C-alpha cells in the first residue's frame, strides 16, 4: 500500500500540517524540521498525490512548451535549458512538437490548456498563421513567446536581439575585408527569418558593401548546400555569406567545398545560434551565440510575472559573436 502523509508525520514526530508545509515549501518551517520530514519521506518511500496536491494548490506545477520542430538543433537545446530551470523549482515540462504545421500547433496548444498547465511557452512556427491559436491560448493561461513571435503583440515575448546579432556578423566580415556579401536564410514565414534578413540589409547598407544574392529557403543544411550551388553557378561569388542559422551555414560549407572554394580564404561564412555542431564543423563555424540558459531563465521569470501582473513585456537578450575558423581576421 502507498505510504500516507500521516505515516510520514508520525515517523518524523510532527503534525500532519507541519509535514505538509515542510514538503511543499510554501510556508516557513525550520530547517531542522524540514530535514526530519524529508528524511522520513525518503525512508518510507512517500510519494505525494499529485492530483490532490493540484486541487489544493490550484496548480499542476507543469509548464507546457510548443516548438516548431524538435528536429532543428536549436530547439532541443533551448528545451533542455527550460527543463533544467523548471526542475530547480520542482516543476515539470510537457513538450510538444508542432511539426512546422500551424494546424498541429493549434491542437497541441488546445491539449495543453485542457491539461491545466500553469503556463505556456511557445515558439510559433508561422508569424501569421499561428496567430489565432496563440491568441486563444493566451486568453486561457499565461503565455510567453520564446525566440519567435506572431504579429500583433498578443503576449509577452523573450528572445535574442536578431538585429544586433546579424549586425555583429556583418560588421565582422566587412572588417575582415569583405566587399561583396550574400545572405542565405529562410522564407519569411517567421519573425526570426524576417528580422535577420532586415538586419542584414541594414548592415550591408551601413557598411557600403555590395549585396550579390539574397536566397531564401528553409532553416536546414540541405538548403544551405543547395544555396551554395546556386551561388557558385550564378557567376557572382561573394566575399562572405551571412547565413540565417547554423544549419544553413554548415550546408553552405559543404557546398562551397564541393565547388572547390576555400573557407575562409575564398569565401567567409557565418551562422547564427551556436548549436553544438558549430564548433565541430570544418572549419569550426564563426557564429552568433544565443544565450540559451539566459533565455530560459527570462522566459520563466516573465511567465511567473504574467500570473500576477498581466501585460505585454518584450525582453530582448543580447547575443554574442563567436569567432572561429570560417571568417578572416579583422584588419
TrEMBL record:
Gene Ontology MF term list: DNA-binding transcription factor activity; transcription cis-regulatory region binding
Gene3D superfamilies on file: 3.40.50.2300, lambda repressor-like DNA-binding domains
Keywords linked to the UniProt accession: DNA-binding, Repressor, Transcription, Transcription regulation
The HTH lacI-type domain, residue ranges: 3-57
One Pfam assignment: Peripla_BP_3
InterPro entries: HTH_LacI (IPR000843), LacI/GalR-like_sensor (IPR046335), Lambda_DNA-bd_dom_sf (IPR010982), Peripla_BP_I (IPR028082)
Protein name: Transcriptional regulator, LacI family
Amino acid at each position: 500500500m502507498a505510504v500516507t502523509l500521516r505515516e510520514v508525520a508520525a515517523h518524523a514526530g510532527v503534525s500532519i500540517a507541519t509535514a505538509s508545509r515542510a514538503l511543499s515549501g510554501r510556508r516557513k518551517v525550520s530547517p531542522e524540521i524540514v530535514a526530519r520530514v524529508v528524511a522520513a519521506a525518503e525512508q518510507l518511500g512517500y510519494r505525494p498525490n499529485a492530483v490532490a496536491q493540484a486541487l489544493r494548490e490550484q496548480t499542476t506545477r507543469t509548464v507546457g512548451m510548443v516548438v516548431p520542430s524538435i528536429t532543428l538543433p536549436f530547439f532541443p537545446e533551448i528545451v533542455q535549458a527550460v527543463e533544467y530551470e523548471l526542475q530547480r523549482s520542482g516543476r515539470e515540462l510537457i513538450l510538444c512538437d508542432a511539426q512546422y504545421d500551424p494546424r498541429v500547433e493549434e491542437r497541441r496548444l488546445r491539449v495543453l490548456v485542457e491539461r491545466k498547465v500553469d503556463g505556456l511557452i511557445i515558439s510559433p512556427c508561422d508569424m501569421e498563421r499561428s496567430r489565432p491559436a496563440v491568441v486563444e491560448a493566451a486568453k486561457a493561461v499565461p503565455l510567453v513567446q520564446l525566440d519567435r513571435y506572431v504579429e500583433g503583440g498578443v503576449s509577452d515575448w523573450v528572445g535574442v536581439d536578431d538585429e544586433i546579432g546579424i549586425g555583429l556578423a556583418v560588421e565582422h566580415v566587412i572588417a575582415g575585408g569583405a566587399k561583396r556579401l550574400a545572405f542565405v536564410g529562410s522564407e519569411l514565414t517567421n519573425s526570426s527569418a524576417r528580422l535577420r534578413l532586415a538586419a542584414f540589409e541594414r548592415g550591408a547598407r551601413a557598411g557600403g558593401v555590395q549585396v550579390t544574392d539574397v536566397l531564401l529557403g528553409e532553416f536546414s543544411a540541405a538548403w544551405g548546400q543547395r544555396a551554395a550551388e546556386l551561388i557558385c553557378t550564378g557567376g557572382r561569388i561573394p566575399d562572405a555569406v551571412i547565413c540565417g542559422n547554423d544549419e544553413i551555414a554548415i550546408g553552405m560549407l559543404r557546398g562551397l567545398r564541393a565547388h572547390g572554394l576555400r573557407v575562409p580564404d575564398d569565401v567567409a561564412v557565418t551562422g547564427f545560434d551556436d548549436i553544438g555542431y558549430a564548433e565541430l564543423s570544418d572549419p569550426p563555424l564563426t557564429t552568433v551565440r544565443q544565450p540559451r540558459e539566459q533565455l530560459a531563465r527570462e522566459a520563466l521569470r516573465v511567465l511567473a510575472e504574467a500570473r500576477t501582473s498581466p501585460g505585454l513585456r518584450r525582453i530582448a537578450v543580447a547575443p554574442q559573436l563567436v569567432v572561429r575558423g570560417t571568417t578572416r581576421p579583422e584588419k
